[in-house]
Design brief:
- It is a single chain.
- This protein is of the alpha/beta class.
- 32% of the residues lie in helices and 18% in strands.
Length: 175
Amino acid sequence: LCARETQQSIAESVHHLLAEQIARLNLGAYYRVEKARIVGTVEHQTGMYGRATERPGISEFVFAGLRHNVNQIKSYEGLDGAWVEEAADVSGNSWDVVLPTIRKSGAETWISFNPKLATDETYKRWVLNPPPDAVVVRTSYEDNLWLSELSRARIEHMKETDHAKYLVIYGGECD
């Protein structure tokens, strides 16, 4: 499941980003990019005697907005992962539905967001009071290997001229 709190169309999802990465990494033989989903075409397994075998894929990326579809998400069966992008605005109600839905053994939930307020549900739930099994990784533009020189120059300019704003926009601090 690839989700955002508000998503009116597939164009507002990470579908395009994933499709670009599949092409960029030459993974087209493994994934079929469709208009509203991405389907794994081949599942690699290690068969008897350690030989690699292939069979038709069973993986699928589905995309959803949580706010208007959260009850529909309850019926997704067998999800073994979720990526909630732009998660700063995800409501407590959405988390209360999504998290129990991702229940398959070994399932993971990945959350990416830029913090807004320390009182936001996502920030409280995942930064201030993360579950005991959570792995919280703080990252920033400094970790971006593909950051352009233009972006780096703009960031440095903001850091010098409006340090408080820089800390919120690029430093991961709450407003």
